[in-house]
Amino acid sequence: MVCFMLPQSMTGYGRGVAGNIRVEARSFNHKYLDIQIKIPLFLYYYENEIRKLVKSRFSRGHIEISVARTETDTVQIRINKPLAVEYYNALVSLKNELSLSGDIDINVLASHRDIFRSEEEAKIEYMNEALEAALLELEKMRTEEGRNLIDDIAGRVQLLSRYIGDVGERRNGIIADTRQSLLERLKEFIGDITMDESRLVQEAAVLIERSDITEEIVRFRSHISHIGNVLKTGDAIGKKLDFLVQELRREVNTIGSKTNDIEIANHVIEMKHEIEKIKEQIQNLQ
Fold it and tell me: Is the domain of 133 the same as that of 105?
């Protein structure tokens, strides 16, 4: 079954403590999932289990897991109270059922060694509890930051949508002016050379087509729509968004190179700025 996750940032911190085991989890930006584990020698055999658990929770980021003992000189005894109660109830039931005499005292319960465990015997349980708490806290922080990043990106995508709309309107308005301007320039250029009016119109149309940005505008809008859909999907979206932003950058560069209109040029500058900001934010998304 595929596990659905909310978009996450790749930076965060989590901490968990259980018994005398403390686990700290730190996460930083990274192109792939890179796990680094620092663990005491007496728990070294548990490193692979930690690595598997981290892989099941995260798909990108440099993640550092640090495991330490909060105490080293004392050995604590842990009592399994639920198990002790079960033993006691079972003994009482057996005594009543068989009509046995005698008291059920602490010595009887103390003979069951599984009720009492030293800290060394309980270390794996402590390890699991502390690790789970640290990873849960890390997930919460990464998810909260991820929401903030998504909100910021969504706002900038709205700006891009508005800018490309303005470019489209401006493009429609300047086609007629461009056509007339090109006709006048062609007539001036050819001077006394006789050329049919329809031929001039054809030449102007060719030049207009070379500078036309309709296809770029259509593709730009399509990429914006895809980005909006990706932002709603959740899970690991950083790589998908990175690809789409590269496509946005390609289209806006082409628009800038094709047009000499000052108004469109200003919008191109604004769009490039927003695209770079989105690119920066995406670098921190899982």
Answer: no
